[in-house]
Design a protein that fits this description.
Elements: H1 2-19, E1 23-38, E2 41-43, E3 50-52, E4 57-59, E5 66-71, E6 78-84, E7 89-97, E8 102-109, E9 112-119, E10 135-142, E11 145-151, E12 164-165, E13 171-176, E14 181-190, E15 199-207, E16 212-213, E17 229-233, E18 241-245, E19 250-253, E20 265-269, E21 291-293, E22 300-306, E23 310-314, E24 323-326, E25 333-341, E26 344-345, E27 364-365, E28 373-381, E29 386-394, E30 410-419, E31 424-431, E32 441-442, E33 448-452, E34 472-482
Antiparallel strand pairs: 1-34, 2-3, 4-5, 5-6, 6-7, 8-9, 9-10, 10-11, 12-14, 13-14, 14-15, 15-16, 17-18, 18-19, 19-20, 21-22, 22-25, 23-24, 25-26, 25-27, 28-29, 29-30, 30-31, 32-33, 33-34
């Protein structure tokens, strides 16, 4: 009887496994000629190691038009190209937004788009930032014509809390049909007020008319100190789902708090050194496609890279309920967390017990092996049940500087299928010539697509340390589907 029971259980398990889909990768190599040149590499903070320069990408709700944003190689001016999603080829005229220093998020509509960028304000304007440091703004275009531009920091924006600017456009932009609001989450530096000269982050909401709305319990002028990573996704009402990596030792689900207070949900303990926490959400040019909402669901999935956490100690600067930790591993591993809604983690949050030897027992590891270094983690959903987690790997890394990235020979991009329960399915697909260098967008047919540059991806040298010129006028795309 026992043998028969085991046989039935095995048969049932096999049947469940057989119903799970697998992944299929399709690439569109050098399919798009860019009208202007683009440099796809950006130097990382502190180490200057290569990062993919983000190319924001989005597809309209009707599925007819894609939009690709890229920074001109001159370093000023963002170009937004209309795309036919079925072929990933040019469709319609290109729109150039002059004076913008970086593109930090893109929302596609049926007849236009909205983009988060940063641009300098003339020093003749009262209370403008010093030295022409750029300020973040949302730009709304319809049928190729700008409808409005709204600054979400700088002069006149929460002046009582301190005016802020954005030297680097590290952030994201989302839109909610239900709330009829854009949400922007981005790193800032204050140039007036108590936090002058320090880094933090801000969450701002703008309606479809371009009006900045201050929403109690959702808007935030200053949240996570020296924010080293942002994950942001729309919800049916503000506050939108938000996650931050801060400089004291944790990654927080801060939807309710908009900050790093310990009444939020601690997702992970992370070692932080010199204002960095291991580039958990990508570091420079990161903070996109790290948090995704399952289709027709209140559930979310988050992916990041981590060295794990051991030996929790009290963070005396922050006070009771806050901890610091040491790294468990040298190379980073990929982790994921599941949320039943924008405010609730489905499993236990990370420990804040001072003296605990283990600070990462709650982590759901996508990669279990230790030794390799993983970076550039992203996630996107296929539907209400399945998601794609992706990352890059160095098999034999050199990790010289604690809390930053590693160098070495690139050994592949990995694409792992997971389900809404947080379980990996099958083995990952590995590619040595396909990368995730722009936002991952889910098409109406459930396919996930993203842009990248067809190039020899080097992770062994810093930018300016002997890498060949990477400037290009070609763009490639890749798509992953379920079969």
């Amino acid at each position: 009887m026992a043998a028969r029971t085991l046989s039935l259980l095995a048969s049932a398990a096999a049947l469940v496994a057989a119903t799970d889909p697998s992944l299929k990768l399709k690439t569109f190599v050098d399919v798009m000629d860019l009208e202007f040149s683009f440099d796809p590499v950006k130097a990382a903070y502190w180490t200057s190691l290569p990062h993919h320069r983000r190319t924001p990408f989005a597809v309209s709700p009707d599925g007819q038009t894609g939009y690709l944003a890229y920074l001109d190689s001159s370093g000023t001016g963002v170009h937004v190209q209309h795309i036919t999603p079925a072929t990933m080829t040019v469709k319609g005229p290109l729109v150039t937004i002059p004076d913008v220093y970086e593109a930090g998020g893109l929302v596609a509509h049926d007849h236009g788009f909205a983009l988060l960028g940063n641009e300098p304000i003339a020093t003749t304007v009262a209370n403008a930032p010093p030295s022409s440091t750029p300020v973040p703004a949302i730009y709304r275009y319809q049928n190729g014509v700008q409808q409005w531009k709204t600054f979400v920091a700088g002069p006149g924006v929460h002046p009582d809390d301190g005016l802020s600017m954005a030297p680097d456009m590290n952030g994201d932009l989302v839109w909610s049909d239900e709330a009829e609001l854009y949400g922007a989450y981005f790193v800032v530096t204050d140039y007036t007020g108590d936090a002058e000269g320090h880094f933090g982050d801000s969450i701002e909401y703008v309606n479809d008319n371009g009006t900045l709305e201050t929403i109690t319990g959702a808007s935030s002028s200053w949240g996570c100190s020296h924010n080293t990573g942002i994950a942001f996704e729309a919800a049916d009402a503000p506050p939108y789902a938000s996650i931050c990596a801060e400089d004291q030792g944790a990654i927080w689900l801060n939807t309710e708090t908009q900050g790093m207070t310990n009444n939020g949900i601690k997702i992970s303990n992370e070692n932080t050194t010199n204002g960095a926490s291991g580039e958990a959400m990508g570091g420079m040019s990161g903070s996109y496609s790290a948090l995704a909402r399952f289709v027709n669901s209140t559930s979310y999935i988050f992916a990041w890279v981590s060295r794990g956490a051991v030996d929790l100690t009290a963070d005396t600067w922050m006070g009771d309920g806050y901890t610091s930790c040491s790294n468990r591993t040298n190379g980073r591993r990929v982790a994921m967390a599941m949320f039943s809604d924008k405010e609730t983690k489905t499993t236990a949050q990370a420990s804040s017990e001072v003296g605990a030897a283990d600070g990462d027992s709650q982590v759901n590891w996508v990669t279990s092996t230790i030794g390799a270094d993983r970076s550039n983690a992203h996630v996107a959903v296929f539907d209400d049940e399945y998601a794609l987690v992706t990352w890059e790997e160095i098999a034999d890394p050199q990790c010289d500087i604690i809390a930053f990235g590693c160098s070495g020979t690139f050994s592949g991009s990995y694409f792992q299928l997971v389900n809404s329960a947080g379980t990996t399915i099958g083995e990952p697909i590995v590619s040595n010539n396909t990368y995730v260098a722009g936002d991952m967008a889910t098409l109406s047919n459930g396919t996930i697509c993203w842009p990248y540059v067809n190039m020899d991806w080097r992770l062994d040298l810093p930018v300016g340390g002997g890498l060949p010129d990477t400037t290009t006028q070609k763009m490639s795309f890749a798509c992953m589907s379920l079969v």
